[in-house]
Design brief:
This protein is α/β, with parallel strands linked by helices and 139 residues long. The chain contains 2 helices and 7 strands.
Length: 139
Amino acid sequence: MAFGNKQESSQKALSTSFLGKGTYIDGKFQVEGNVRMDGNFKGDIHGNADLIIGEGAYVEANINVRNLTIMGEVHGSVHCAEKLEIHNTGKVVGEIKAGKLIIEENAIFEGTSMMPKKEEKITSEQKTASRNTAEQKKQ
C-alpha cells in the first residue's frame, strides 16, 4: 500500500484510542478518530474526533471535538461541532456549545448551554421576492 493512500487515511479515521481506568494524564491531548476515556484527565482535548467519557471517568478540560458522549464527569468548557450526549450517569459542570444536545433523564448539567443556529442560505430568487414585497409595502 502506498504512503498517503486514501484507504490508509480512512483506516486512521476509524482507529480507536483508549485511556483506561486508573490512568491519569495532565496536559494537552490532540485526538483524531475515536477516543474513549475511562481514566482521569486534566488539560485540553482538541481534534476532529468522536470522544467518549466513560462511566467513572473524571475530566477537567477545555474540550473541542466533533461528537462527545459523556457517561462520567466533566468540568470545563465543551464545544462539539455536531452532537453532545450526556447519559444518565453523566455529569457536566461548565459551559457547553453544540450543534445538537441530548440530556438523558437523571443526567446532571450545571452551567450554560448554547446551540448556534445553522445559517440558512438565501437564494437569489428569495432575495428578489423579499425585495419586491418590501417595495410593494412602501407603495
